UniProtKB/TrEMBL annotation:
GO terms for biological process: lipid A biosynthetic process. Belongs to the transferase hexapeptide repeat family. LpxD subfamily. This is UDP-3-O-acylglucosamine N-acyltransferase. CDD domains: LbH_LpxD. It comes from Nonlabens agnitus. Pfam families: Hexapep, LpxD. The keyword Acyltransferase applies. It catalyses: a UDP-3-O-[(3R)-3-hydroxyacyl]-alpha-D-glucosamine + a (3R)-hydroxyacyl-[ACP] = a UDP-2-N,3-O-bis[(3R)-3-hydroxyacyl]-alpha-D-glucosamine + holo-[ACP] + H(+).
Length: 339
């Protein structure tokens, strides 16, 4: 898609300083700008790039004063950073403005969808699937039977949504996600082998949830695995059966949450955190990266370590951890002196 500088200025409620008819068709960082690209300048640290960039147009603050000659067309706005963010949203919406059903693809006769629907090639929609308005499903997506998907959802290529899953409104599911696969349930036998415990529950994902690429959310044994509204999950996270994640909690990549643990609202969980099963983590909890959680955590806690404990205590203890070899030598010397 191509846009003229004046069209962009109109979208951003700005003004053009230069050629209003110059066209751009891609976005770039200012230091990597090339002909046909649009960039922005908000941090004074990057001012020097404005005089060397090849970008056709650059978004700047209204009060910006150039110290040297600028070859790019300038689009002056009140706040260049916010304006560029708004433009990214506009660009993303334009990219997602797809409609229709590509072939080859399959939709069961009993499935339904509302206006604004897009289905990419090689996707499969099983029986009794219900899809809301303005849902965009990209290529190679598999949606099993009895799934419900709300309005304005985006499901990227290669995602799998298994049977009985319920997806709310404004949910983004990135490539390679698996929603509603069997939970990890086995019972030991007397001979040391294991028997599979059927996982007959489902997954419920509420509104405004973002799920990163290759993240897996397992169906419940009974009942539901629940991701509450506003939750943001990074790439490559494992959410086991019957887990519940509270509203607006954010979890970074490679974290694993074992079965039946409950995480509260507004928590911030770093990467590679391991959370054992059947635990309760309160609201507003911060867990630092690579922590191991083996017990219940009270609301408002900020913890680190493996096994994890209070963040401040961990930092003070870490000073001693680093000094243990020196302390051991001092103790040994003191014992010799007093022998």
């Amino acid at each position: 898609m191509k846009f003229k500088a004046q069209q962009i200025a109109d979208i951003l409620e700005g003004t053009v300083d230069g050629d209003p008819n110059i066209e751009v068709h891609k976005l770039s960082k200012i230091e990597e700008g090339s002909a046909g690209s649009l960039s922005f300048l908000s941090n004074p640290k990057y001012n020097s790039y404005l005089y060397s960039t090849k970008a056709s147009a650059v978004i700047v603050n209204q009060d910006f004063q150039a110290e040297n000659e600028v070859s790019s067309t300038l689009i002056r706005v009140k706040d260049s950073y916010k304006a560029f963010s708004k433009l990214l949203e506009f660009y993303q919406a334009a990219k997602l403005n797809k409609n229709g059903i590509e072939q080859p693809s399959f939709i069961h006769d009993s499935a339904s969808h509302l206006d604004g629907f897009y289905l990419g090639a090689f996707s499969y929609i099983a029986e009794n699937v219900k899809i809301g308005k303005n849902v965009k499903i990209f290529s190679n997506v598999h949606i099993s039977e009895n799934v419900s998907i709300g309005d304005n959802c985006v499901i990227y290529s290669g995602a799998k949504i298994m049977s009985e899953s319920i997806i709310g409104n404004q949910v983004i599911i990135n490539s390679g996600c698996v929603i509603g696969a069997d939970g990890f349930g086995f019972s030991p036998n007397e001979d040391g082998s294991y028997s599979k415990v059927p996982q007959i529950g489902n997954v419920i994902i509420e509104d405004n949830v973002d799920i990163g690429a290759l993240t897996t959310i397992d169906r419940a044994t009974l009942g539901s695995t629940v991701i509450r509204k506003g939750v943001k999950l990074d790439n490559q996270i494992q959410v086991a059966h019957n887990v519940e994640i509270g509203e607006n909690t954010v979890i970074a990549s490679q974290t694993g949450i074992a079965g039946s643990s409950k995480i509260g609202k507004n928590c911030r969980i770093g990467g590679q955190v391991g959370i054992a099963g059947h635990l309760t983590i309160g609201d507003n909890v911060g867990i630092q990266a690579q922590s191991g959680i083996g017990k219940n955590i009270k609301s408002g806690s900020n913890i680190q370590g493996s096994p994890a404990f209070e963040y401040g205590d961990w930092n003070r203890s870490y000073v001693n951890f680093k000094n243990l070899p020196k302390l051991e030598k001092r103790i040994t010397q003191l014992e010799k002196n007093h022998a």
